[in-house]
Amino acid sequence: MKIINPATEALIREVKEDSDLSVRKKFERAQAAQCQWATVPISQRVEAMARFERLLDEETDRLAEVLTSEVGKPIRESHNELAGARHRIRYFVEHSEAVLEAGTVHEETGMVEYLEYEPLGVVGNISAWNYPYLVGVNVFVPALIGGNAVLYKPSEYATLTGLELGRLLHRAGIPKDIFQTLVGGPAIGKKLLRLPLDGYFFTGSYQTGRSIAEAVRSRLVPLGMELGGKDPLYVADDVLDISQVAKAVVEGCFYNNGQSCCAVERVYVQQKIYRQFLEAFLGEVKKLRVGDPLDPTVTQGPITRPRHRLLLEVQVRDAVAKGAKLLEGGHRWGKRGFFFEPTVLTRVNHKMRVMKEETFGPVIGIQSVRDDAQAVRLMNDTEYGLTAAVYSGSESRARAILKQIDAGTGYWNCCDRVSPNLPWSGRKHSGIGATLSTVGIQTFVRPKAYHLRGDHPLPSC
Ligand code: NAD
Questions:
Q1: In what order do the strands lie in the sheet with 111-119?
Q2: Over 70: is that where the pLDDT of 70 sits?
Q3: Architecture label for domain 2-227+430-453
Q4: Which of 218, 224, 163, 168 is nearest to 194 (CA)?
Q5: Tens of pLDDT, residues 328-386
Q6: How far apart are CA 446 and CA 232, in angstroms?
Q7: I need a labelling partner for 86 at 20 to 30 A (CA). Which of 144, 224, 273, 282 fits?
């Protein structure tokens, strides 16, 4: 498989893809090793993750360069991603033992009710390229701590990072057969789905997620899906500082070139402040710098997947044909590399694809709205339900709006943000299940309930 640098179109390296046989052998090795791993005390599994976190820190400069070279994100953002992943690992290191602790939950004469958690077994993790560290860590860190073996298939656009993750986990003390990387694209993902795994955890698009759900649903094992979004953001007329809000919203739209599951994909602005907001917003967009992602002053690298620029062009053309005004960008950029200009469209409406389909790129539509009720109606007019944001001077007003939005996450005066302390979950076509937080630790284990009559000692773990 050829690994191409999206900023230069140069070949970085060729790597050997997995085959039918190698995938099957990896599964058999994982299955044979998992029972032993499950008997390792959780404190030792947690300690291995703490070592993994330190290794990410030690090698952070090189890992950031590898990430930037294969996905094209600006080097500062690659560093941010690694720091964010370490923060999440520290959360799991600090909280997993308490969350998974076995114990008596109820006692009465002659009867003890006791709860413990067991691993699922061998789980598959098919992952995305846009934040390979973050979305990977959400799954394989709690899965490994929970006593599972993991077959991890990184995206074909983040293969080198996937291989680095495997190498560092092994160095940290995770046995080689307990975490194995599968190299390849959709065909290797499909092979993984044919294996009788004990859980399937997927991060990627709704289209792929749906086909995965259809392929494995009859197995009746846990299925986790973190899928796409069309996340709305509403700027109410009582915001205190329009220029600060515009700056934050531009960051939410264009960070990682808009290639974030929770990127702001639609902006609604209360009509009283629409002109003022738009002016401030365009001022901020003009500060963005497209170019070589290794240059620390560059904010916009290339689009990671070359063909995705076609979708961006189609959405822009469709919007303009239906009456939108193109205020900024709208075209490919540069002679080499898969760049696309930061793009702003106004006079948009929900008949346009750019306001309905996931864009996953540096293209944003801004629509003026009459009042909160219209904003709520438009924000909910989507097949997705990942996040929604409200900027307002009033917490109660913002919370009243967010309460009515069918999404897994609500933001007041912030956006495009994920925290390990809170569950990360999508509704509708944005996913099923949850990762992160105490909920995301329990995602990778099964509860086992004991009803113990008599004066028995408690079962040993
Ligand atoms: P994708 O669906 O194209 O691919 C994701 C993974 O699935 C890759 O590893 C790919 O090789 C594999 N795959 C593709 N087809 C397959 C098939 N038929 N069977 C098995 N495996 C298959 O998605 P992507 O381009 O890697 O990621 C972008 C998408 O991911 C966006 O929609 C984004 O919103 C979403 N995403 C969501 C979250 C979240 O937390 N909700 C996080 C990151 C990305």
A1: 103-108, 111-119, 445-453
A2: yes
A3: 3-Layer(aba) Sandwich (3.40)
A4: 218
A5: 999 999 999 999 999 999 999 999 999 999 999 999 999 999 999 999 999 999 999 99
A6: 35
A7: 224
Q: Report d(CA 136, CA 152) in Å as an integer.
A: 9
Phi and psi at 335, nearest 5°, equal -90, -30
Place 256 in a pLDDT band, splitting at 50, 70 and 90.
Answer: very high
Ligand 1 touching residue 268 (CB < 6 A): no
Instruction: Looking at the CA of residue 386, tell me the nearest atom of ligand 1.
Output: 41
Q: Tell which atom from ligand 1 comes closest to the C-alpha of 228.
A: 34
Evaluate: CB of 156 within 6 angstroms of ligand 1. yes
CA distances for 377 relative to 295, 369, 394, 429, angstroms: 42, 10, 20, 18
Told to judge if 226 belongs to the known catalytic residues of this protein, a careful annotator would answer yes
C-beta of 357 in contact with ligand 1 (< 6 A): no
Q: Is 253 a catalytic residue?
A: no
The per-residue pLDDT of the chain, averaged, comes to 97
- Rounded to whole angstroms, the Cα distance separating 124 from 181 reads 10
Looking from the CA of 41 toward its CB, the CA atoms found within 13 Å total: 4
203 C-alpha vs ligand 1 centroid, how far in Å? 5
d(CA 189, CA 269): 41
Q: Which CATH architecture has domain 231-412?
A: 3-Layer(aba) Sandwich (3.40)
Look up residue 326 and give its amino acid.
L
Count the Cβ atoms, other than its own, within 10 Å of residue 39.
8
Burial 256-285 (b: 16+ CB within 10 A, else e): bbbbbbbbbbbbbbbeebbeebbebbbebb
Residues in Cβ contact with 122 at an 8 Å cutoff, skipping those fewer than 6 apart: 27, 30, 31, 34, 148, 149, 150, 151, 197, 198
Element spanning 137, H or E = helix 132-145
Q: For residue 453, report the phi and psi dihedrals to the nearest 5 degrees.
A: -95, 140
Catalytic residue among 70, 253, 261, 341: 261
**Distances in Å between the alpha carbon of 196 and those of 24, 33, 178, 215, 225?**
10, 16, 16, 11, 18
Residue spans of the domains in the chain: they are: 2-227+430-453, 231-412
Ligand 1: which atom is nearest the Cα of residue 157?
26
Over the stretch 421-460, which tens digit does the pLDDT of each residue have?
999 999 999 999 999 999 999 999 999 999 999 875 555 5
The tokens for 344 are 């702003």
- pTM exceeds 0.70: yes
Ligand 1 site, residue 204, Cβ cutoff 6 A: yes
The mean pLDDT of 300-328, rounded to a whole number, is 98
